[in-house]
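Subject — a protein and its fold
Encoding — discrete vocabulary of local shapes:
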Amino acid sequence: MLAKKVAKSVSCDKYYSPLEWKLMWSKTEHKALPKEPPSIYWAYYALAKLGRWHDSKATGIVGWEALWDGWFVLSQLLEGAILMQQQIKEM
């Protein structure tokens, strides 16, 4: 329980760049970006959702494969976003 409270109070921008967490938010949430970065607790589940995890067993525990797949999807999104930013700068 203590770990969950701590995770909910720690901002995800300590571990993710602004572009990374904004990409995760855009892919997993269907609402506008928050003014403040969400918690690392949110980022854990957002990364899992990118890895096609749906909590089908209702345990709340994400497996390492879903996290790995989510990390891979995030890296692809990040690479695409960086390429687009570079293209826009060159125009």
Summary: The chain has a mean pLDDT of 94.
